[in-house]
Amino acid sequence: MDSQFAALTLDTSEPLVSSHSPTATESSQTPLHSASSHTDYDQSQCPIFTQEVDPLLIKNSLEDRIAYLTDFLNFTSRDAEIISKIAPAVNEVIPGMVDGMYAKLFEFDITKKVFMTRNQGFDGPLPQTLEELTLDSAQIVFRKVFMKAWARRVLTADYSSGKTWAYMDKVGIMHTGASPFKHQRTMGIAPLNVPYRDIALTLGWIQTVLHSAILQLPENKCPASEKIEAVAAINKVLWIQNDLFSRHYIGD
């Protein structure tokens, strides 16, 4: 795998999850690395060798899990480069994407009712009934700020830094009902508790919007060859984020 990612280390100065979580992320002394050397994998050819992967290690060590995920998906510095290149052109769709995402979540009672519970960091008024909850409600406006920040980070993150993956892992944890942030646990602030089913569906919806935005870029801004690369790169990032959600739900 790309040497830029092979040198990646994680900042584990702050616990990523409360101690009661069965999938707590532990610091690891094992450096992030990859034994894979392929760039264009020919599926008709048998791999030269089979890598050994310790399931317990990638369950408990975030850095080793990221090594496995990025190697499996062949996420390299070229992927990070092409995301950074198309970011300015795609960034303008983020506000509309976030508005559309919440409108989609409001189409179903099981996804809308999640927002009847006070979210971490929000101290404004809450509606008393589901019918009173609107897209202009204070907590939804508050949530949109966070969502826009996450989407922009996907487009602008330094993917050679372990802090990027640690952030995405915390995003996963904070939707499970366990807080990854020490100050929130100390203050007794309740995190989100969203079923993984709806998390996965929402990521799929976001993926469609971002892919469409990339494919609709004018040729003078992004030639077809780079659109193909960008769609693939965004796809890899979102599937890594998906895994960093699911690992805290299923404990795998």
Automatic annotation (TrEMBL):
<dbReference type="InterPro" id="IPR012292">
    <property type="entry name" value="Globin/Proto"/>
</dbReference>
<feature type="region of interest" description="Disordered">
    <location>
        <begin position="1"/>
        <end position="39"/>
    </location>
</feature>
<dbReference type="Pfam" id="PF11563">
    <property type="entry name" value="Protoglobin"/>
</dbReference>
<feature type="compositionally biased region" description="Polar residues">
    <location>
        <begin position="10"/>
        <end position="39"/>
    </location>
</feature>
<dbReference type="GO" id="GO:0019825">
    <property type="term" value="F:oxygen binding"/>
</dbReference>
<protein>
    <recommendedName>
        <fullName>Globin-sensor domain-containing protein</fullName>
    </recommendedName>
</protein>
<dbReference type="GO" id="GO:0020037">
    <property type="term" value="F:heme binding"/>
</dbReference>
<dbReference type="InterPro" id="IPR044398">
    <property type="entry name" value="Globin-sensor_dom"/>
</dbReference>
<feature type="domain" description="Globin-sensor">
    <location>
        <begin position="63"/>
        <end position="250"/>
    </location>
</feature>
